[in-house]
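Title: Prediction job returns without error message
Component: structure pipeline
Severity: low
Priority: P3
Assignee: unassigned

Description:
Job completed but the reporter wants confirmation the result is attached to the right record. Sequence as submitted:
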Amino acid sequence: MRLVVNGVQRITVRDELSCRDLQDMKITRPEIRVTADPVLGLEQRFVDDEAGRKILEQAGVNLSKEKKLIGVSPREWQGLSEYKQVLAALCDKLSRVGFQVVFLPMHYPDDLKTSQEIVSLMEQPATVLTGNYSVADTAALIANMDLLVGMRLHALILAAVMGVPPVAISYDPKIDRFMNLLGREAAINVAEPDFDCLWEDVQTIICDPWVAREELVQEVEPLRQRARESAVMALQVLDSTCVVIERRLPIFNALWRETMKKKSWLPILCLCLSLLWSLPAWAANQVAPGVRQCPFKRPTGKVSLSRSCPGGRSKAAIYRDTSHYGQ
């Protein structure tokens, strides 16, 4: 891993502890930048809440204002079962005090099976969403929740982005690290599930939901700015990669034609060396084919991205204002 990562152009990580992990692996170049998970750059105004409401209505969920929604995003973990019983007990208690429980399987179909198993342990009714939803639909569903109890990292991140207070059940350090970025801690760990601790965190939010939401917005905003830094760095890498591709591939093509003409060992040797030289640029072009960015001077604020369509028949220009990134 050290050999590969030390050869990349940019390294970004989600948190300080991840940075230390890479440093412990003797990864020294390029400089490691601590930003944030890219999903935190998603803006709520781009999510269609109504699409989530339609899915919930089709699943038979009561969307009246009197009925608050609790989203639950569980997962299977190392054959453990006690945390499922604790989750079932929590959902039963929430149902008895007037909440509707909706299970949101993030990884289909694995999480669907886990959700159905937890519902089978419950005494009160709950809704399990059974579709294999896109990221956009999942974000729209979470946006309609009043609180999310989750194990899946990106369920917790999407909840935070959508302004829905998250309560975390940790199974991996990445869950604890994300909650620490929000100034919070995971309610429980799957290895030592405690109903009282889980209920205490949930009760704190449902007793004063507006305060919980306002605090969450303040905690997420700095992380949004850090996530945008990753986007700026990605654009910079595409800048340099496209220039390298333009310079190297014509040389490779010329050597190939010369080799086909003479069929001698010297052009073949040069061709092999040229291939090795061009390989990084070719690989980058497979990741982002045809992407060009101009102008190359970034302070102008507006960046134009052009992507050639297959066959070179047409081009589409995308303009993205990056003047506020990193502020």
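Comment from assignee: result matches the submitted record. Residues 2-34 form one domain.
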